[in-house]
């Protein structure tokens, strides 16, 4: 009986080992990613379906990934291309061809005095996905462009409610660098006064061809904005809003030294006055100190008010500047200046709109309340 149990245990252990080898077996896979013209694609995301294993193609379109045996399907995806799923069972090398997304080319783009399909435009035009852009609360309407259009850079001033600076294709001159903003066919100075919830579409004309439509004003690029319109039918009332808190970075943001670290630095640097500033040695701070026109020093731990040895430093002779001393208690912990001036701040936005109409007339009315108090103290004007 004991022998049978022993054999059973051995068989169980062998089965467990074999099962674990199958379960955790992995396959080292290398490959390349190219477009339909055979050119390497950089930055294509390749991940193993059903796992968190992922990588990206390099400048030559090459990649390397470890594929578990029980998850043999790779998914390759990139903006502007259709996702590709490939079974890689028992493969060590693979070549992936990415196909252009047809739906992107069929996107209708507002280019000036009309609309065109993106695939019919020879110039450089970017279309912003307004739905995705509004998922992240923005302190200015211009921030809807951040990260949504290639070649467009948005710099936030940091001031609550302040407009942002937008560059299309970088800084092209030493003068006016802001793009031209066109809202429903009307040229405006910026887009900060446009309610994000009222925007239907945003197109960015990035090449010099924009000047053919808008003249020299379009030399820095053109941001064309189309707002929502009312539609015939039953009246619709909609509300959109959020309430949140903005929080500054935590920790030692400016990497400042503490007084103890400053003491250690002074000793390591060999400052000639180190015995006066820090007589206790490196990393040791006195409790009180004094400083005058001719000399400086420190006191013990007895305290300023009951230490008879410092009475002379309270004497002030207006005719003798050498008798004028500053007596103070040292800050043992130091001051976190970053969090003294940056605090948590509330932010909220509320937008209400009503739209409707008939076959002859349509309407859309909207109202927005936005409150951003800013994390820098005293930067919010009440």
How many H/I helical runs?
7
Major sheet summary line: 5 strands, mixed
Provide mean pLDDT, rounded.
76
Rg calculated over all Cα atoms: 34 Å
Query: Largest beta sheet: what is the strand line-up?
Result: 10-15-16-13-14
Strand content: 25-35%
User: What gap, in angstroms, lies between the N and C termini?
Assistant: 88 Å
Helix content: 10-25%
Structural class by secondary-structure content: alpha+beta
Report the oligomer: single chain
Q: Would you count the extended β strands for me?
A: 22
The gross shape turns out to be: extended
Spans of at least 5 consecutive residues with low confidence: 1-5, 16-24, 118-122
Compressed to H and E, one letter per element, the order equals HEEEEEEEHEEEHEEEEEHEEHHEEEHEE
Q: Keywords, please?
A:
382 residues; alpha+beta; five-stranded mixed sheet; four-stranded antiparallel sheet; extended; disordered N terminus
Could you walk me through the main structural features you see in this protein, from its secondary elements to its overall organization?
By secondary structure, the chain is α+β, with helices and mostly antiparallel strands. The chain contains 7 helices and 22 strands. It has helices at 2-24, 102-105, 130-133, 211-214, 259-269, 274-277, 337-341; strands at residues 26-34, 45-48, 54-56, 62-68, 73-78, 81-87, 93-97, 108-110, 115-117, 125-128, 152-155, 165-168, 180-183, 186-188, 199-205, 222-227, 233-246, 288-292, 296-299, 325-329, 345-357, 362-372. Strand 13 (180-183) and strand 14 (186-188) form a beta hairpin. The longest helix has 23 residues, at 2-24. The radius of gyration is 34 Å and the shape is extended.
